[in-house]
Amino acid sequence: MSIFDIFAKIESERAPTGAPSHIIVGLGNPGSQYEDTRHNAGFMAADTIAEKLGVDIKKLRFKSLTADINFGGKRCLLLKPSTFMNNSGEAVVAALEYYKLTTKELTVIYDDIALDVGRLRIRAKGSDGGHNGIKSIIYLTGSDEFSRIRIGVGAKPHPDYPLADWVLSHFTVEEGKLLVPALENAAAAAELIVSGKINEAMNKFNTRG
User: Fold this and answer.
1) Cα–Cα nearest to 150, from 190, 177, 94, 180
2) Tell me, what CATH number does 8's domain have?
3) Active-site residue, 170 included
4) What range does the domain containing 93 cover?
């Protein structure tokens, strides 16, 4: 057993049990054809959290693949919607309503083409910014007051490049080298947010410029 596995086991044993009090959602599209595409940065961040804790996101609930985790001192639901990006709100609302939680107990991790690859931007609330997954969540929950972690996936190479083609494209090898630490930082930021330290997360991980 590696030291990584030992820490994951200790975290699992000492943290709270029972119903989740916070939901962490990584946005993306299901299916092998979408794996490792720019639009699936949220899925990748959720997978990074799961790997850190030594769990698999595989239980089918709330139109999503889910895992119950102990994270940031709380029992959390880690969720990857299977609804496709534009209908992400359906999965989020189903989970929130089941556990009787509000958007105050929700953190969403997703891609942002307005940020360079590897950059992060954390906010406690805000508009959808043109992101269809966030638009769906805001519309169906009726609130934009949920924390979010935006992961930079880079802008279109030129204005006429089709947006759908760009967000469904894969990262280059060089971009992948920048993305890996960003995913680790996104996981660390999510842990701070869950533990009630969103200001610390913003101060530590919001990239400048």
Assistant:
1) 190
2) 3.40.50.1470
3) no
4) 3-205
